[in-house]
Protein backbone atom coordinates (compact mmCIF):
# COMPACT_ATOMS: atom_id res chain seq x y z
CA UNK A 1 0.00 0.00 0.00
CA UNK A 2 1.07 3.60 0.36
CA UNK A 3 2.97 5.42 3.06
CA UNK A 4 0.18 8.04 3.18
CA UNK A 5 -2.48 5.70 4.57
CA UNK A 6 -5.40 6.82 6.64
CA UNK A 7 -5.80 10.13 4.86
CA UNK A 8 -8.48 11.56 2.57
CA UNK A 9 -7.78 13.79 -0.43
CA UNK A 10 -10.71 15.84 -1.75
CA UNK A 11 -9.67 16.27 -5.38
CA UNK A 12 -11.20 18.39 -8.13
CA UNK A 13 -11.28 16.53 -11.46
CA UNK A 14 -11.93 19.67 -13.51
CA UNK A 15 -14.82 20.59 -15.80
CA UNK A 16 -14.91 17.45 -17.95
CA UNK A 17 -11.94 17.02 -20.27
CA UNK A 18 -9.84 14.39 -18.44
CA UNK A 19 -6.58 16.20 -19.23
CA UNK A 20 -7.66 19.23 -17.19
CA UNK A 21 -7.13 17.54 -13.82
CA UNK A 22 -4.19 19.06 -11.91
CA UNK A 23 -0.83 17.33 -11.70
CA UNK A 24 -1.32 16.99 -7.93
CA UNK A 25 -4.67 15.27 -8.47
CA UNK A 26 -3.18 12.99 -11.12
CA UNK A 27 -0.37 11.86 -8.82
CA UNK A 28 -2.76 11.19 -5.96
CA UNK A 29 -4.90 9.00 -8.20
CA UNK A 30 -1.81 6.98 -9.05
CA UNK A 31 -1.24 6.20 -5.37
CA UNK A 32 -4.79 5.87 -4.05
CA UNK A 33 -6.09 2.70 -2.46
CA UNK A 34 -9.72 3.79 -2.76
CA UNK A 35 -11.33 6.31 -5.13
CA UNK A 36 -14.87 7.57 -4.49
CA UNK A 37 -15.97 9.39 -7.63
CA UNK A 38 -18.95 11.40 -8.86
CA UNK A 39 -20.73 10.00 -11.92
CA UNK A 40 -20.00 13.17 -13.92
CA UNK A 41 -16.25 12.51 -13.73
CA UNK A 42 -15.02 11.35 -17.14
CA UNK A 43 -14.12 7.60 -17.04
CA UNK A 44 -10.80 8.36 -18.71
CA UNK A 45 -9.73 10.19 -15.55
CA UNK A 46 -10.35 6.97 -13.65
CA UNK A 47 -7.82 5.15 -15.82
CA UNK A 48 -5.15 7.18 -14.04
CA UNK A 49 -5.99 5.23 -10.89
CA UNK A 50 -4.78 2.02 -12.56
CA UNK A 51 -1.38 3.26 -13.70
CA UNK A 52 0.39 1.21 -11.04
CA UNK A 53 -0.50 -2.15 -12.50
CA UNK A 54 0.89 -4.24 -9.64
CA UNK A 55 -1.64 -2.66 -7.26
CA UNK A 56 -4.61 -2.76 -9.62
CA UNK A 57 -6.31 -5.64 -7.82
CA UNK A 58 -5.92 -3.88 -4.47
CA UNK A 59 -7.69 -0.71 -5.59
CA UNK A 60 -11.35 0.11 -5.17
CA UNK A 61 -13.07 2.44 -7.64
CA UNK A 62 -16.47 3.29 -6.20
CA UNK A 63 -19.04 5.28 -8.16
CA UNK A 64 -21.35 7.24 -5.89
CA UNK A 65 -24.34 6.74 -8.18
CA UNK A 66 -25.44 7.49 -11.71
CA UNK A 67 -28.85 8.76 -12.78
CA UNK A 68 -30.80 5.90 -14.34
CA UNK A 69 -28.40 3.25 -13.00
CA UNK A 70 -29.26 2.28 -9.47
CA UNK A 71 -29.44 4.42 -6.38
CA UNK A 72 -27.38 7.57 -5.85
CA UNK A 73 -25.71 7.54 -2.45
CA UNK A 74 -26.75 10.14 0.07
CA UNK A 75 -24.20 12.58 1.45
CA UNK A 76 -24.34 10.82 4.80
CA UNK A 77 -23.54 7.47 3.14
CA UNK A 78 -20.63 9.04 1.25
CA UNK A 79 -19.26 10.48 4.50
CA UNK A 80 -19.56 7.11 6.25
CA UNK A 81 -17.78 5.22 3.48
CA UNK A 82 -14.92 7.72 3.30
CA UNK A 83 -14.44 7.65 7.06
CA UNK A 84 -14.53 3.84 7.15
CA UNK A 85 -11.94 3.49 4.38
CA UNK A 86 -9.54 6.03 5.87
CA UNK A 87 -10.01 4.62 9.39
CA UNK A 88 -8.94 1.24 7.98
CA UNK A 89 -5.60 2.82 7.07
CA UNK A 90 -6.28 3.38 3.36
CA UNK A 91 -5.31 6.34 1.25
CA UNK A 92 -8.61 7.72 -0.05
CA UNK A 93 -9.27 10.05 -2.98
CA UNK A 94 -12.69 11.67 -3.10
CA UNK A 95 -12.87 12.73 -6.75
CA UNK A 96 -15.31 15.53 -7.56
CA UNK A 97 -16.22 17.27 -10.77
CA UNK A 98 -14.90 20.82 -11.12
CA UNK A 99 -13.45 22.31 -7.94
CA UNK A 100 -14.25 20.76 -4.53
CA UNK A 101 -14.90 24.15 -2.94
CA UNK A 102 -17.46 25.33 -5.52
CA UNK A 103 -20.91 23.83 -4.86
CA UNK A 104 -19.27 20.52 -3.95
CA UNK A 105 -20.58 19.99 -0.38
CA UNK A 106 -16.99 19.80 0.73
CA UNK A 107 -17.77 21.48 4.04
CA UNK A 108 -19.97 18.53 5.06
CA UNK A 109 -17.31 16.00 4.11
CA UNK A 110 -14.59 17.88 5.94
CA UNK A 111 -16.78 18.06 9.05
CA UNK A 112 -17.21 14.27 8.98
CA UNK A 113 -13.46 13.74 8.59
CA UNK A 114 -12.59 16.15 11.39
CA UNK A 115 -15.13 14.53 13.69
CA UNK A 116 -13.48 11.17 13.01
CA UNK A 117 -10.04 12.64 13.68
CA UNK A 118 -8.79 11.93 10.16
CA UNK A 119 -6.24 13.89 8.14
CA UNK A 120 -7.31 15.41 4.84
CA UNK A 121 -6.19 17.67 2.02
CA UNK A 122 -8.24 19.68 -0.48
CA UNK A 123 -6.82 19.72 -4.02
CA UNK A 124 -8.35 22.47 -6.21
CA UNK A 125 -9.69 21.83 -9.68
CA UNK A 126 -10.83 23.93 -12.62
CA UNK A 127 -14.42 24.83 -11.83
CA UNK A 128 -16.95 24.48 -14.65
CA UNK A 129 -18.14 28.07 -14.40
CA UNK A 130 -14.70 29.47 -15.21
CA UNK A 131 -13.93 26.82 -17.82
CA UNK A 132 -17.21 27.61 -19.59
CA UNK A 133 -15.94 31.11 -20.28
CA UNK A 134 -12.61 29.89 -21.66
CA UNK A 135 -14.10 27.12 -23.80
CA UNK A 136 -16.97 29.17 -25.20
CA UNK A 137 -14.88 32.23 -26.04
CA UNK A 138 -16.94 34.34 -23.64
CA UNK A 139 -14.70 36.52 -21.41
CA UNK A 140 -16.24 36.42 -17.95
CA UNK A 141 -14.52 39.72 -17.20
CA UNK A 142 -14.08 42.56 -19.66
CA UNK A 143 -12.46 45.92 -18.97
CA UNK A 144 -15.36 47.77 -20.58
CA UNK A 145 -18.45 45.84 -19.43
CA UNK A 146 -17.65 43.55 -16.47
CA UNK A 147 -15.05 43.90 -13.73
CA UNK A 148 -16.49 41.20 -11.47
CA UNK A 149 -18.07 37.74 -11.58
CA UNK A 150 -20.67 36.08 -9.34
CA UNK A 151 -20.94 32.28 -9.15
CA UNK A 152 -24.56 31.44 -8.36
CA UNK A 153 -26.37 28.17 -7.70
CA UNK A 154 -29.61 27.66 -9.54
CA UNK A 155 -30.86 25.25 -6.89
CA UNK A 156 -31.03 26.02 -3.19
CA UNK A 157 -31.20 23.28 -0.58
CA UNK A 158 -34.72 22.59 0.61
CA UNK A 159 -35.29 23.83 4.13
CA UNK A 160 -32.18 25.98 4.06
CA UNK A 161 -31.86 28.14 7.15
CA UNK A 162 -31.28 31.84 6.59
CA UNK A 163 -31.82 33.95 3.52
CA UNK A 164 -32.25 32.51 0.06
CA UNK A 165 -30.36 33.97 -2.89
CA UNK A 166 -30.96 37.70 -3.03
CA UNK A 167 -32.00 38.00 -6.66
CA UNK A 168 -32.84 41.65 -6.21
CA UNK A 169 -29.18 42.37 -5.43
CA UNK A 170 -27.99 40.10 -8.25
CA UNK A 171 -30.23 42.01 -10.65
CA UNK A 172 -28.16 45.08 -9.83
CA UNK A 173 -24.80 43.24 -9.82
CA UNK A 174 -22.39 45.22 -12.08
CA UNK A 175 -20.75 42.20 -13.67
CA UNK A 176 -21.25 38.67 -15.00
CA UNK A 177 -23.58 36.11 -13.44
CA UNK A 178 -22.58 32.45 -13.83
CA UNK A 179 -25.30 29.97 -12.86
CA UNK A 180 -24.54 26.38 -11.89
CA UNK A 181 -27.29 23.74 -11.77
CA UNK A 182 -29.67 26.31 -13.16
CA UNK A 183 -31.19 24.65 -16.24
CA UNK A 184 -34.34 23.22 -14.69
CA UNK A 185 -35.04 26.38 -12.65
CA UNK A 186 -34.01 28.97 -15.27
CA UNK A 187 -37.56 30.00 -16.05
CA UNK A 188 -38.05 30.99 -12.42
CA UNK A 189 -34.80 32.80 -11.60
CA UNK A 190 -34.59 34.59 -14.95
CA UNK A 191 -38.10 35.96 -14.49
CA UNK A 192 -37.31 37.08 -10.94
CA UNK A 193 -34.14 38.85 -12.09
CA UNK A 194 -36.23 40.73 -14.64
CA UNK A 195 -38.87 41.56 -12.02
CA UNK A 196 -36.08 43.12 -9.93
CA UNK A 197 -34.90 45.31 -12.77
CA UNK A 198 -32.51 43.23 -14.89
CA UNK A 199 -33.09 44.06 -18.57
CA UNK A 200 -34.88 41.39 -20.59
CA UNK A 201 -32.41 42.06 -23.41
CA UNK A 202 -29.41 41.07 -21.27
CA UNK A 203 -27.40 38.54 -23.32
CA UNK A 204 -27.27 34.97 -22.00
CA UNK A 205 -25.39 31.86 -23.11
CA UNK A 206 -25.85 28.19 -22.25
CA UNK A 207 -22.63 26.14 -22.29
CA UNK A 208 -23.44 22.45 -22.17
CA UNK A 209 -20.89 19.63 -21.75
CA UNK A 210 -18.13 22.18 -21.29
CA UNK A 211 -14.71 21.08 -22.64
CA UNK A 212 -16.06 17.88 -24.19
CA UNK A 213 -16.10 17.27 -27.92
CA UNK A 214 -19.90 17.51 -27.92
CA UNK A 215 -19.87 20.91 -26.20
CA UNK A 216 -22.75 23.20 -27.16
CA UNK A 217 -22.80 26.99 -26.86
CA UNK A 218 -26.24 28.48 -27.42
CA UNK A 219 -27.05 32.18 -27.13
CA UNK A 220 -30.28 33.89 -26.21
CA UNK A 221 -31.44 36.67 -23.91
CA UNK A 222 -32.48 36.68 -20.29
CA UNK A 223 -36.09 37.34 -21.25
CA UNK A 224 -36.19 34.35 -23.62
CA UNK A 225 -34.07 31.99 -21.52
CA UNK A 226 -36.80 29.81 -19.97
CA UNK A 227 -38.67 29.36 -23.26
CA UNK A 228 -35.38 28.83 -25.12
CA UNK A 229 -34.29 25.97 -22.84
CA UNK A 230 -37.68 24.27 -23.15
CA UNK A 231 -37.73 24.64 -26.94
CA UNK A 232 -34.28 23.10 -27.36
CA UNK A 233 -34.94 20.47 -24.66
CA UNK A 234 -31.57 21.19 -23.08
CA UNK A 235 -30.69 19.11 -20.07
CA UNK A 236 -27.92 19.33 -17.46
CA UNK A 237 -25.00 19.49 -17.12
CA UNK A 238 -24.78 23.06 -18.33
CA UNK A 239 -23.49 26.44 -17.20
CA UNK A 240 -25.52 29.58 -17.93
CA UNK A 241 -23.66 32.87 -18.37
CA UNK A 242 -25.67 36.09 -18.06
CA UNK A 243 -24.25 39.50 -18.85
CA UNK A 244 -22.97 41.88 -21.50
CA UNK A 245 -19.78 39.80 -21.85
CA UNK A 246 -21.81 37.30 -23.88
CA UNK A 247 -22.17 39.91 -26.62
CA UNK A 248 -18.43 40.60 -26.39
CA UNK A 249 -17.52 36.98 -27.15
CA UNK A 250 -15.15 36.12 -29.96
CA UNK A 251 -16.90 35.37 -33.23
CA UNK A 252 -14.40 32.56 -33.86
CA UNK A 253 -13.68 30.82 -30.52
CA UNK A 254 -10.67 28.52 -30.40
CA UNK A 255 -12.83 25.57 -29.30
CA UNK A 256 -15.30 25.83 -32.17
CA UNK A 257 -16.31 22.60 -33.89
CA UNK A 258 -14.82 23.72 -37.21
CA UNK A 259 -11.44 24.55 -35.66
CA UNK A 260 -11.27 21.38 -33.59
CA UNK A 261 -12.11 19.20 -36.58
CA UNK A 262 -9.13 20.70 -38.38
CA UNK A 263 -6.76 20.10 -35.47
CA UNK A 264 -8.23 16.85 -34.09
CA UNK A 265 -9.64 14.57 -36.81
CA UNK A 266 -11.77 12.45 -34.44
CA UNK A 267 -13.40 15.47 -32.80
CA UNK A 268 -16.95 14.62 -31.74
CA UNK A 269 -16.61 10.89 -32.45
CA UNK A 270 -17.23 8.50 -29.58
CA UNK A 271 -14.86 5.55 -29.38
CA UNK A 272 -15.28 2.57 -27.06
CA UNK A 273 -12.00 1.06 -25.82
CA UNK A 274 -12.38 -2.59 -24.85
CA UNK A 275 -8.91 -3.51 -23.60
CA UNK A 276 -8.39 -4.73 -20.00
CA UNK A 277 -8.42 -1.95 -17.40
CA UNK A 278 -4.67 -1.81 -16.87
CA UNK A 279 -3.98 -1.63 -20.62
CA UNK A 280 -6.61 0.92 -21.66
CA UNK A 281 -4.82 4.12 -20.71
CA UNK A 282 -2.35 4.35 -23.60
CA UNK A 283 -5.01 4.00 -26.30
CA UNK A 284 -7.52 6.26 -24.55
CA UNK A 285 -4.95 9.05 -24.25
CA UNK A 286 -4.06 8.79 -27.96
CA UNK A 287 -7.72 8.82 -28.98
CA UNK A 288 -8.38 11.80 -26.75
CA UNK A 289 -5.50 13.70 -28.35
CA UNK A 290 -7.19 13.14 -31.71
CA UNK A 291 -10.38 14.68 -30.33
CA UNK A 292 -12.43 11.56 -29.63
CA UNK A 293 -14.89 11.16 -26.79
CA UNK A 294 -13.60 7.98 -25.14
CA UNK A 295 -15.56 5.40 -23.19
CA UNK A 296 -14.10 2.26 -21.64
CA UNK A 297 -15.68 -1.18 -21.32
CA UNK A 298 -13.19 -4.00 -20.78
CA UNK A 299 -14.15 -7.11 -22.74
CA UNK A 300 -11.65 -9.34 -20.95
CA UNK A 301 -9.94 -9.29 -17.59
CA UNK A 302 -6.39 -10.42 -16.95
CA UNK A 303 -5.58 -12.32 -13.75
CA UNK A 304 -2.79 -14.48 -12.34
CA UNK A 305 -2.93 -18.23 -13.10
CA UNK A 306 -5.05 -20.32 -10.77
CA UNK A 307 -1.83 -21.81 -9.34
CA UNK A 308 1.84 -21.01 -9.87
CA UNK A 309 3.29 -24.52 -9.70
CA UNK A 310 4.10 -24.97 -13.40
CA UNK A 311 5.39 -21.40 -13.72
CA UNK A 312 7.68 -21.87 -10.72
CA UNK A 313 8.94 -25.13 -12.18
CA UNK A 314 9.77 -23.36 -15.46
CA UNK A 315 11.56 -20.59 -13.55
CA UNK A 316 13.55 -23.21 -11.64
CA UNK A 317 14.70 -24.72 -14.94
CA UNK A 318 15.45 -21.50 -16.85
CA UNK A 319 19.04 -22.55 -17.47
CA UNK A 320 17.78 -25.41 -19.66
CA UNK A 321 16.06 -23.10 -22.18
CA UNK A 322 17.71 -21.35 -25.11
CA UNK A 323 14.80 -19.02 -25.97
CA UNK A 324 11.99 -17.40 -24.02
CA UNK A 325 9.12 -16.40 -26.32
CA UNK A 326 6.46 -13.86 -25.36
CA UNK A 327 3.27 -13.31 -27.38
CA UNK A 328 1.92 -10.45 -25.25
CA UNK A 329 2.93 -7.70 -22.84
CA UNK A 330 0.82 -9.40 -20.17
CA UNK A 331 2.95 -12.53 -20.49
CA UNK A 332 6.10 -10.47 -19.94
CA UNK A 333 4.73 -8.78 -16.85
CA UNK A 334 3.30 -11.85 -15.12
CA UNK A 335 6.37 -14.01 -15.82
CA UNK A 336 8.99 -11.54 -14.67
CA UNK A 337 7.01 -10.36 -11.66
CA UNK A 338 6.71 -13.99 -10.57
CA UNK A 339 10.41 -14.64 -11.18
CA UNK A 340 11.38 -11.66 -9.04
CA UNK A 341 8.83 -12.59 -6.37
CA UNK A 342 10.46 -16.02 -5.99
CA UNK A 343 13.80 -14.45 -5.09
CA UNK A 344 15.51 -14.59 -8.47
CA UNK A 345 16.85 -11.79 -10.62
CA UNK A 346 18.02 -11.15 -14.19
CA UNK A 347 21.22 -13.17 -13.67
CA UNK A 348 19.12 -16.32 -13.99
CA UNK A 349 18.48 -15.40 -17.64
CA UNK A 350 22.12 -15.27 -18.69
CA UNK A 351 21.81 -18.15 -21.14
CA UNK A 352 18.48 -17.14 -22.68
CA UNK A 353 17.54 -15.21 -25.78
CA UNK A 354 14.20 -13.42 -26.09
CA UNK A 355 11.62 -13.28 -28.87
CA UNK A 356 8.55 -11.02 -28.81
CA UNK A 357 5.60 -10.91 -31.18
CA UNK A 358 5.50 -7.12 -31.59
CA UNK A 359 6.68 -3.71 -30.39
CA UNK A 360 4.30 -3.48 -27.41
CA UNK A 361 5.62 -6.79 -26.08
CA UNK A 362 9.21 -5.69 -26.73
CA UNK A 363 8.51 -2.44 -24.87
CA UNK A 364 7.22 -4.43 -21.89
CA UNK A 365 10.46 -6.41 -21.95
CA UNK A 366 12.47 -3.18 -21.88
CA UNK A 367 10.76 -2.25 -18.61
CA UNK A 368 12.77 -5.09 -17.08
CA UNK A 369 15.98 -3.79 -18.72
CA UNK A 370 15.96 -6.52 -21.37
CA UNK A 371 15.99 -6.25 -25.17
CA UNK A 372 14.30 -8.60 -27.62
CA UNK A 373 16.72 -10.61 -29.76
CA UNK A 374 13.99 -11.25 -32.29
CA UNK A 375 10.85 -9.38 -33.29
CA UNK A 376 9.20 -10.40 -36.57
CA UNK A 377 8.63 -7.88 -39.33
CA UNK A 378 4.92 -8.79 -39.27
CA UNK A 379 3.38 -8.91 -35.82
CA UNK A 380 1.62 -12.29 -35.83
CA UNK A 381 2.35 -15.82 -34.67
CA UNK A 382 3.01 -17.24 -38.13
CA UNK A 383 5.66 -14.62 -38.88
CA UNK A 384 7.29 -15.11 -35.49
CA UNK A 385 7.45 -18.87 -36.03
CA UNK A 386 8.89 -18.45 -39.53
CA UNK A 387 11.71 -16.16 -38.36
CA UNK A 388 12.43 -18.02 -35.12
CA UNK A 389 12.41 -21.56 -36.54
CA UNK A 390 15.87 -21.41 -38.22
CA UNK A 391 17.39 -20.02 -35.01
CA UNK A 392 15.71 -22.47 -32.62
CA UNK A 393 15.96 -25.76 -34.52
CA UNK A 394 17.31 -28.43 -32.17
CA UNK A 395 17.08 -26.04 -29.20
CA UNK A 396 14.70 -25.66 -26.26
CA UNK A 397 12.11 -22.90 -26.36
CA UNK A 398 9.77 -21.82 -23.57
CA UNK A 399 6.53 -20.13 -24.64
CA UNK A 400 5.04 -17.87 -21.93
CA UNK A 401 1.38 -17.56 -22.78
CA UNK A 402 -2.21 -16.87 -21.78
CA UNK A 403 -4.71 -19.46 -20.62
CA UNK A 404 -6.28 -19.39 -24.09
CA UNK A 405 -5.17 -18.61 -27.59
CA UNK A 406 -4.04 -20.23 -30.81
CA UNK A 407 -1.63 -23.15 -30.80
CA UNK A 408 -0.12 -22.20 -34.15
CA UNK A 409 3.17 -20.86 -32.76
CA UNK A 410 3.96 -24.04 -30.82
CA UNK A 411 2.83 -26.26 -33.69
CA UNK A 412 4.96 -24.51 -36.33
CA UNK A 413 8.07 -24.43 -34.16
CA UNK A 414 7.68 -28.09 -33.22
CA UNK A 415 7.25 -29.03 -36.88
CA UNK A 416 10.51 -27.16 -37.62
CA UNK A 417 12.45 -29.27 -35.13
CA UNK A 418 12.28 -27.07 -32.01
CA UNK A 419 11.82 -28.58 -28.56
CA UNK A 420 8.87 -26.50 -27.33
CA UNK A 421 7.54 -26.18 -23.79
CA UNK A 422 4.56 -24.01 -22.87
CA UNK A 423 3.45 -22.56 -19.57
CA UNK A 424 0.39 -20.42 -18.75
CA UNK A 425 1.53 -17.29 -16.91
CA UNK A 426 -1.82 -15.47 -16.80
CA UNK A 427 -5.54 -16.09 -17.12
CA UNK A 428 -7.62 -14.31 -19.77
CA UNK A 429 -11.32 -14.34 -18.88
CA UNK A 430 -14.34 -12.79 -20.55
CA UNK A 431 -16.22 -9.92 -18.94
CA UNK A 432 -19.78 -11.20 -19.09
CA UNK A 433 -21.84 -8.07 -18.50
CA UNK A 434 -21.24 -4.51 -19.77
CA UNK A 435 -22.17 -1.48 -17.72
CA UNK A 436 -25.72 -0.30 -18.30
CA UNK A 437 -24.39 3.12 -19.27
CA UNK A 438 -22.28 1.69 -22.11
CA UNK A 439 -25.01 -0.68 -23.27
CA UNK A 440 -27.62 2.08 -23.35
CA UNK A 441 -25.30 4.37 -25.32
CA UNK A 442 -24.58 1.62 -27.85
CA UNK A 443 -28.28 0.88 -28.28
CA UNK A 444 -28.99 4.58 -28.77
CA UNK A 445 -26.36 4.85 -31.50
CA UNK A 446 -24.15 7.12 -29.39
CA UNK A 447 -20.96 5.09 -29.99
CA UNK A 448 -19.26 5.55 -33.37
CA UNK A 449 -16.35 3.11 -33.08
CA UNK A 450 -15.48 0.04 -31.03
CA UNK A 451 -11.80 -0.92 -30.89
CA UNK A 452 -11.06 -4.66 -31.04
CA UNK A 453 -7.45 -5.40 -30.17
CA UNK A 454 -7.36 -9.21 -29.98
CA UNK A 455 -9.25 -12.29 -31.04
CA UNK A 456 -10.22 -12.96 -27.41
CA UNK A 457 -11.68 -9.47 -27.14
CA UNK A 458 -13.56 -9.99 -30.43
CA UNK A 459 -15.22 -13.17 -29.15
CA UNK A 460 -16.06 -11.60 -25.81
CA UNK A 461 -17.65 -8.55 -27.46
CA UNK A 462 -19.85 -10.78 -29.60
CA UNK A 463 -20.95 -12.64 -26.49
CA UNK A 464 -21.43 -9.43 -24.49
CA UNK A 465 -23.28 -7.25 -27.02
CA UNK A 466 -24.55 -9.52 -29.80
CA UNK A 467 -26.46 -7.68 -32.50
CA UNK A 468 -25.98 -4.35 -30.70
CA UNK A 469 -22.47 -4.39 -32.24
CA UNK A 470 -24.05 -3.51 -35.59
CA UNK A 471 -24.86 -0.05 -34.24
CA UNK A 472 -21.17 0.98 -34.26
CA UNK A 473 -18.22 0.51 -36.58
CA UNK A 474 -15.66 -2.08 -35.48
CA UNK A 475 -11.93 -1.36 -35.75
CA UNK A 476 -9.81 -4.54 -35.77
CA UNK A 477 -6.11 -4.51 -34.91
CA UNK A 478 -5.20 -7.27 -37.38
CA UNK A 479 -6.63 -9.42 -40.20
CA UNK A 480 -6.84 -12.33 -37.74
CA UNK A 481 -9.00 -10.31 -35.35
CA UNK A 482 -11.09 -9.09 -38.28
CA UNK A 483 -11.56 -12.70 -39.40
CA UNK A 484 -12.90 -13.69 -35.97
CA UNK A 485 -15.40 -10.82 -36.16
CA UNK A 486 -16.39 -11.68 -39.71
CA UNK A 487 -16.95 -15.35 -38.91
CA UNK A 488 -19.29 -14.28 -36.11
CA UNK A 489 -21.23 -12.10 -38.56
CA UNK A 490 -19.83 -8.72 -37.55
CA UNK A 491 -17.36 -7.51 -40.21
CA UNK A 492 -14.83 -4.86 -39.22
CA UNK A 493 -15.19 -1.35 -40.58
CA UNK A 494 -11.40 -0.93 -40.69
CA UNK A 495 -8.38 -3.17 -40.16
CA UNK A 496 -5.04 -1.77 -39.01
CA UNK A 497 -2.25 -1.93 -41.57
CA UNK A 498 0.33 -2.18 -38.76
CA UNK A 499 -0.87 -4.52 -36.04
CA UNK A 500 -0.41 -2.07 -33.16
CA UNK A 501 -2.64 0.40 -31.34
CA UNK A 502 -0.96 3.18 -33.34
CA UNK A 503 -1.88 1.35 -36.53
CA UNK A 504 -5.45 0.92 -35.27
CA UNK A 505 -5.73 4.63 -34.47
CA UNK A 506 -4.39 5.55 -37.92
CA UNK A 507 -6.95 3.29 -39.61
CA UNK A 508 -9.82 4.99 -37.76
CA UNK A 509 -8.50 8.48 -38.55
CA UNK A 510 -8.02 7.66 -42.24
CA UNK A 511 -11.56 6.31 -42.44
CA UNK A 512 -13.02 9.42 -40.81
CA UNK A 513 -11.03 11.85 -42.95
CA UNK A 514 -11.43 10.06 -46.29
CA UNK A 515 -13.13 12.26 -48.94
TrEMBL record:
* InterPro entries noted in UniProt: 4pyrrol_Mease, 4pyrrol_Methylase_sf, 4pyrrol_syn_uPrphyn_synt_sf, 4pyrrol_synth_uPrphyn_synth, 4pyrrole_Mease_sub1, 4pyrrole_Mease_sub2, CobA/CysG_C, Siro_Cobalamin_biosynth
Q: What is its EC number?
A: 2.1.1.107
**Tetrapyrrole biosynthesis uroporphyrinogen III synthase domain boundaries:** 282-505
Q: Give the UniProt keywords, A-Z.
A: Cobalamin biosynthesis, Methyltransferase, Porphyrin biosynthesis, S-adenosyl-L-methionine, Transferase
Residue ranges of the Tetrapyrrole methylase domain?
7-225
List this protein's GO terms for biological process. cobalamin biosynthetic process; methylation; siroheme biosynthetic process
The answer to whether UniProt assigns keyword Coiled coil to this entry is: no
| Domain of life per record | Bacteria
Q: Which family does it belong to?
A: Belongs to the precorrin methyltransferase family.
Protein name from the UniProt record: uroporphyrinogen-III C-methyltransferase
What is the species of this protein?
Bythopirellula goksoeyrii
Amino acid sequence: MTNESGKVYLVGAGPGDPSLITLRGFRLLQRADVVFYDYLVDPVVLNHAGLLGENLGQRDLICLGRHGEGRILTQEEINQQMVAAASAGKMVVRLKGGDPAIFGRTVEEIAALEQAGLSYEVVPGVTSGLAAGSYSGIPLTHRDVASCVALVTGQEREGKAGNAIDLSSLAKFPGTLVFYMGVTTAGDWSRRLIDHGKAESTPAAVVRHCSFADQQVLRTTLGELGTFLSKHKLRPPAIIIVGDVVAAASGNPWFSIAQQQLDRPLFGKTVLVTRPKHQASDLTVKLHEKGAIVSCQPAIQIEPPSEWGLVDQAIENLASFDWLVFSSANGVKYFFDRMLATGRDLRHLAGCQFATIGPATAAALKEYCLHADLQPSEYRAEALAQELAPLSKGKRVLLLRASRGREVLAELLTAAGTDVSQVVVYQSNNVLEPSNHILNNLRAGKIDWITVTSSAIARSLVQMFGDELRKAKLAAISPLTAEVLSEAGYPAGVVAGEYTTDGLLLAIVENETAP
